[in-house]
Amino acid sequence: MAAKTPNLTLYTAQTPNGTKISIALSILNLPYKVHPLNLATHEQKLPWFTAINPNGRLPALTDHSPPFPSSSSSSSPPEPLHIMESGAILLYLVSNYDTSQKLSFSKDSKEHWEMVQWVFWQNAGLGPMQGQSNHFVRYSPEKIPYAVGRYVNESRRLYTVLEGRLKEQEEKRGSGWIVGDHVSIADITVWCWAIYAEWGGIGLEGFERVRKWRERVAGVEGVEEGRNVPEPSGLRDADLGDEVLVRGYVEGSRKWILEGMRRDAEA
Amino acid sequence: MSSIKPITVYGHLGATPNPPKVLILLKLLGLPYTHIEKALTDDPTVEDGIKHTNFTAINPNGRIPAITDPNQNDINVWESAAILQYLAEVYDKDYKFSGKDLEERTLINEWIAFQISGQAPMSGQFLWFSVDRLHKAKYGEQAPEHVIIRFKNEVRRIYGVLNAHLEKQKAKGSDWIVADRLTIADVAWIPWARIIPAFDPTLLEELPAFKAWLERMDALPAVKETYAELNPPPMA
C-alpha cells in the first residue's frame, strides 16, 4: 500500500481541528502541501473551497493520488479524493498510510475499536461542547451565565471521563496513552482541544493525569512541528491572566466570528 | 446467521436520537439482539441508570447507546458512530450498507463525522434552549433570543449543506448520501432529521431534496419497525 510518494494537500488554519491533521502528517512523516485558509476573510466559504468541503469548514485534505482507480475508467489516473471532517481524515490517513501502526492499531484488534470510539467521542462531545464554551466564555457579545455554565460544566464532565480513562490505562495496562500502549490518533485528536481547555474557561486543577498526559503528547516527535502549521498559535503559552493580551486576541477574532454567524444566517 | 448470539444493546425506548441508529442497522442486517432499557439519570446510585458503575464499566462516558457483543469476546462498543462502523465491519460482509473499499468507507466516515459533530450537537443545543420544558423549566425564563437563533441558524446551515449534497447525488442518479445505496451514513442522519421539523416547521419545505430523502428513510421497513417499538416522543 501507498508505495509511491504521497501527494497530499492540507487546507488548514491555526485551529484545534486543523492541527490534528498536520500533527498526524508530521508523526507519520508524510510529505504534504499546506494551503492556509484565511478565516478572517471567510475564505472557507468561497466556492472553490466548498467544492472540496461542502460544509465550508476546516480542515480538509486532498489526496491527489489515492490508492484506488478512477471510477470512470480503471486505466486513467485516479481522481483526487477530497476529505472533510478531521475524524474522517485521520481514519483515512491511518488506513492508507500508517502501515507500521505508529498512530493506530491492527484492524482486527480490540484497540482499533477503542481508538475509533475515542476519536468519535472527541468529534461528538469534547469538540462541540468546548467549542460552545469558547464562544460563550470569549466571543459572545453578551455574558450569559447559564450558557457559560452549561458548556463549561459539560466540558468538565468530559475531562473527568478522560481523567478516568487515563487512570484505567495507567493502573490496568501501565500505559500513559488513551488507547493501547502507544500514542494514536485518539491522543492527537483529544490533545488538540485539551491544550486549549483553559482558554475555554475550563481549569484543569485536579485533573492531574490529563495535565501530565498533555505534556507527554507534547513530547512526541512530530507534535511540535505539526502544531505550528500553518503558523504558530497566537495563544500558545499565553498568560490568560494577561487581560490586555486576552482582550486583544478576543477582539481580533470576535469580529470575523460574529460576521460569519451573520452571513450564515442570511445564506 | 442462526449461530449468531444476540448482541446486547443498552438503549432507551424514548425520544433520544442515538439508540435508534443502532436498532435500525441491527434490523437491516437481520442480527439478533437483546435490548436493555437504561434509565436516563445522572444519579450514580440508580441501578439501571447510565451513571451507575455497572454501566460506566461498559461505557466510561455514561451515555447510550452501547453494545456488548458475545460473538466477539464480549467486546463493548460505545459512541453510536463507532457502533455503526463496528457492526458494518464485523457483520456486513457483502457491503450492503457499508463501504466496499477505502474510497466508499472514507466518504461514509465524512458524513458520519459531520453528523456526530454537527447535526447532533447543534440540534441538541437548539432544542435545549428553545423547548420550554428544558432550559426554561430549569431557569424559569427563556434564553435570550440571540442564543436560540445562534443554534437555529447553525442547524439550518447544516441541513442546507445536506440538501445541496443530496441534490448533487440526485444529479448522479443516487437517492442516498453516499454511493448508490442505503449506507450507515444515511442511518446516522435519520433520528435527528425526523425530530427537527417539529421545531422548525418550514425547514422541510425550503429543502426539497432533504424532504424527499427523509420521506424515503421513513418508508424503510427497518425504520418503521424501530420507531413503532419506541415510546411516543414526548417532545413532538
From TrEMBL, chain A:
It holds the Pfam family GST_N. Gene3D superfamilies: 1.20.1050.10, Glutaredoxin. Residues 5-101 form the GST N-terminal domain. Residues 60-79 are annotated as: Disordered. Residues 108-240 form the GST C-terminal domain. InterPro entries: Glutathione-S-Trfase_C-like, Glutathione-S-Trfase_C_sf, Glutathione_S-Trfase, Glutathione_S-Trfase_N, GST_C, Thioredoxin-like_sf. Belongs to the GST superfamily. PANTHER family: GLUTATHIONE S-TRANSFERASE GSTA (PTHR44051:SF8), GLUTATHIONE S-TRANSFERASE-RELATED (PTHR44051). This is Glutathione S-transferase.
Automatic annotation (TrEMBL), chain B:
InterPro entries: Glutathione-S-Trfase_C-like (IPR010987), Glutathione-S-Trfase_C_sf (IPR036282), Glutathione_S-Trfase (IPR040079), Glutathione_S-Trfase_N (IPR004045), GST_C (IPR004046), Thioredoxin-like_sf (IPR036249). PROSITE patterns: GST_CTER (PS50405), GST_NTER (PS50404). Residues 6-95 form the GST N-terminal domain. Residues 101-235 form the GST C-terminal domain. It comes from the Eukaryota. SUPFAM superfamilies: GST C-terminal domain-like, Thioredoxin-like. Pfam families: GST_C, GST_N_2. Belongs to the GST superfamily. This is Glutathione S-transferase.
